Amino acid sequence: EIVLTQSPGTLSLSPGERATLSCRASQSLTSNYLAWYQQKPGQAPRLLIYGASTRATGIPDRFSGSGSGTDFTLTIRSLEPEDFALYYCQQYGGSPLTFGGGTKVEIK
Amino acid sequence: EVQLLESGGGLVQPGGSLRLSCEGSGFIFFNYAMSWVRQAPGKGLEWVSVISGSGGSTFYADSVKGRFTISRDNSMQTLSLQMNSLGAADTAVYYCARGVIPSDLDPYYYYYMDVWGKGTTVTVSS
């Protein structure tokens, strides 16, 4: 099983600041098969990024994904009030699918 | 509009059974692998199970293997999860999700999830 480790656990930032979230895999991911999701309290996850760097439909361009192999990053260029939420990475290049433990982006 | 709507959650006693359903609309159901993902209170996301578009192949997390059965009825655009021998560790919000397989060369269990239902809550308690 591929273990995904997300860091930091919590990121305290102000609106307008840049957020950098990390996701590290225990082994190299096939074809960079990594996705990022956003989840707000009481809501289902929402797909942000797939294939490590491709934005899903309707996702603003302030969200970007990068990385390859075992190290991946989600960057939010300038935080909007609605971006304060939980973020999960998920790998789909190994069986079973696994999720990271999540990073909470909170208002400082 | 593409939508998934879960139902069937509730309170069940330890050792009991429950059947969850998920109705898809706005897309061609059999073209997609379908999956269940759960989230225990205050915890992260846990993948539970997946079924191929045809329904001929299924895969389960070790934590539910032998107790849960995933199935689908493509004519009714419905996904189901039969859950038996439930325990406290199964208490969670259960999400139905549509799986997108990146390439025709990839197996049905390599996918990301682009559409999610709102979830249905399962509570196992006496």
What features would you highlight for this structure?
heterodimer, A: 108 residues, mainly beta, 7-stranded mixed β-sheet, 4-stranded antiparallel β-sheet, 49% strand, B: 126 residues, 11 strands, 0% helix, 51% strand
Brief sketch in words of this structure:
The complex is a heterodimer of chains A (108) and B (126). Helix content of chain A is 0%, strand content 49%. In chain A, a hairpin with a 3-residue loop joins strand 5 and strand 6.
Oligomer: heterodimer
Which of globular, elongated, flat, extended, rod-shaped describes the shape of chain B?
Answer: globular
Q: What percent of residues of chain B are in strands?
A: over 45%
Listing every helix as H and every strand as E from the N terminus to the C terminus, the arrangement of chain B reads EEEEEEEEEEE
The biggest beta sheet of chain B reads: 7 strands, mixed
Strand segment tally of chain B: 11
Structural class of chain A: mainly beta
Counting H and I runs of at least 4 residues, what is the number of helices of chain A? Answer: 0
Nearest-integer average pLDDT of chain A = 97
Biggest sheet features of chain A? 7 strands, mixed
Radius of gyration of chain A: 13 Å
Mean pLDDT of chain B: 96
Return residue spans of chain A where pLDDT drops below 50 for at least 5 consecutive residues.
none
Secondary structure category of chain B: mainly beta
| Coarse shape of chain A | globular
> Percent of residues of chain A in helical segments?
under 10%
Radius of gyration of chain B: 14 Å
Termini separation of chain A? 35 Å
